[in-house]
């Protein structure tokens, strides 16, 4: 008969020990995992707290920026801004005019000179027209002391010319030398003298003239005509004080659309099916009152030019309150009596 296994006291103790060893060895990884879990939890919690702080900081900055952001301007606000700009421009113009007046001797104690001129007359000329200029100086246009006396009467006359495409070359130097001896030029520093640039020359001439002299009228004259100066002065005296005056020998005419023909207009298609120019003053002699010359000065950057200076000038007058004055005395090529100009 088989005997049953008997567990002795020693065996029981050994079992207890081995079980304790197994329990302690299995609990170590658990403790390590628990430690790393705590560390990971603390790291995640720290990042979440930091992100929350960053969000709060960004929210505060956005709120501050939105409070400083400009509001949408109303029409009244925009008008006020424009009014301030216009006032600033007038102040600058007044300072320029004051500086010019001082440089020309219009000082306190000389009230007889501190008055508006009657007219500034600009005679268009070119680099190759010196002989023609000398003819004018010996006929209708005063020179030397006579030119200064005319200015005392309120009439300024200058030859108007731009600069050479190659600035500083012999063409420019010759004009500078001639001007030093005659002192009767208005040199348009920002204008390149060329036939195709005549419309731009009109803008720069009127802008420069109205900036440099305070006059009732600004007159553009071609160098292809002779002037009855006293007759022109008398005509301007009669018109003195008339604002918005656009004066000349008014005409219209066909728009030439064939390239290569004389008077070709590259933008002929803008003038309608009949291809007819709007009414405008002939380019030989054009007179503008001061406020119209100021309009050109202020808006010169945005004014559209066409192929010719007289039609360009006429287009600028279309959209404003200009008073068209058709004066037959200014039709230089006609046979009208008592004209103030004639073909040279």
From TrEMBL:
Belongs to the glycosyltransferase 31 family. Residues 26-104 form the DUF4094 domain. Pathway: Protein modification; protein glycosylation. Possesses hydroxyproline O-galactosyltransferase activity. Transfers galactose from UDP-galactose to hydroxyproline residues in the arabinogalactan proteins (AGPs). Is specific for AGPs containing non-contiguous peptidyl hydroxyproline residues. The addition of galactose onto the peptidyl hydroxyproline residues in AGP core proteins represents the first committed step in arabinogalactan polysaccharide addition. AGP glycans play essential roles in both vegetative and reproductive plant growth. It is found in: Golgi apparatus membrane. This is Hexosyltransferase. Residues 1-25 are annotated as: Disordered. GO terms for molecular function: hydroxyproline O-galactosyltransferase activity. InterPro entries: DUF4094, Glyco_trans_31. Its cofactor is Mn(2+). GO terms for cellular component: Golgi membrane. It is a single-pass type II membrane protein. It comes from the Eukaryota. Its EC number is 2.4.1.-. Keywords: Glycosyltransferase, Golgi apparatus, Manganese, Membrane, Signal-anchor, Transferase, Transmembrane, Transmembrane helix. One of its GO terms (biological process) is arabinogalactan protein metabolic process. It comes from Lupinus angustifolius.
